[in-house]
Design brief:
Layout (H helix, E strand, L loop, with lengths): L13 E5 L4 H12 L3 E6 L2 H11 L5 E5 L5 H15 L4 E4 L14 H29 L3 E6 L12 H21 L4 E8 L6 H13 L5 H9 L12 H8 L10 E4 L7
Parallel strand pairs: 1-2, 1-4, 2-3, 4-5, 5-6, 6-7
Helix pairs in contact: 1-8, 3-4, 4-5
GO molecular function: oxidoreductase activity
Family: Belongs to the short-chain dehydrogenases/reductases (SDR) family.
Pfam families: adh_short_C2 (PF13561)
Length: 265
């Protein structure tokens, strides 16, 4: 029940949010809890998991589990831990990702491989493993893949990251058309620029490659958003609740732009 004693849109559902210990992932976890779900935040950073659980302050309704999406044994262990604690998985938010940027002539093979390993391969095999668990449960499920506006367009300093997020959109479409036969609805979200602590690192990289003062790039991208500001983690929670709930039952294989008007498709 929510604070008003009414059943939420996700009442008694079990959700896993990868990369759930901070930022957008944690905001989505909080929103799911408020809508009556039990939530597992799965993250590679054990310290961040503890901090995230403390912030959620949800008692037995929330759990943390360490997850390395690049390791299939870790994925299997995460699923086993969640099923042991909560009995099933009804919702997966595939949010874990990494970011890097360089001019094309400076992209290293290590950076390229690492971004695809986490953002594409890790996302896919997490989706596959959880979808198998959902099929075994026999009641369908909902999977939400986090893409980005970077998956909708090229950007000169972010070629590899853009390619990984475009791949997420493509995988969302293909997996959705296959898994809907099993009652599993797959969709995606494409955030725009989001004001998180990571933007200090991003801004520093832009300052280096574009010869700008620190802080200028962040200010510029925020002002360029039609709504007039960068996104905040909580701006993505409503769309994530919608795609996980019965309200979106007839929506399949779509990636919803949540970006303040930055991109139209």
């Amino acid at each position: 029940m929510n604070a008003q004693g009414m059943a939420g849109k996700l009442q008694d559902q079990v959700a896993v949010v990868t990369g759930g210990a901070r930022g957008i992932g944690l905001a989505i976890a909080q929103a799911y809890l408020q809508q009556g779900a039990r939530v597992a935040i799965a993250d590679i950073d054990a310290t961040a998991i503890d901090e995230g659980l403390a912030e959620l302050d949800a008692g037995e309704a929330a759990m943390g589990v360490r997850l390395d999406v690049c390791c299939r044994d870790s994925i299997a262990g995460m699923i086993s831990a969640v099923e042991q604690r909560f009995g099933a998985i009804d919702i997966l938010v595939n949010n874990a990702a990494i970011f890097d940027m360089q001019p094309v002539l400076e992209v290293s093979e290590a950076s390229f491989d690492r971004q695809f390993a986490v953002n594409v391969k890790g996302l896919f095999f997490t989706l596959q493993a959880v979808a198998r668990a959902m099929v075994e449960q026999g009641k369908g499920g909902r999977i939400i893949n986090m893409s980005s506006q970077a998956g909708r367009r090229g950007e000169p300093l972010v070629s590899t990251y853009c390619a990984t997020k475009a791949a997420v959109i493509s995988l969302t479409q293909s997996c959705a058309l296959d898994l809907i036969k099993q009652g599993i609805r797959v969709n995606g979200l494409a955030p725009g620029v989001v004001d998180t602590p990571m933007w200090a690192e991003v801004d520093a990289l832009f300052a280096r490659y574009e010869n700008r003062p620190l802080g200028e790039k962040k200010r510029m991208v925020g002002e360029a958003v039609p709504i007039g500001r960068m996104g905040r983690p909580q701006d993505y929670a409503g769309a994530a609740v919608f795609l996980a709930s019965d309200d979106s039952d007839y929506i399949v294989a779509q990636t919803l732009n949540v970006d303040g008007g930055n991109w139209m498709s």
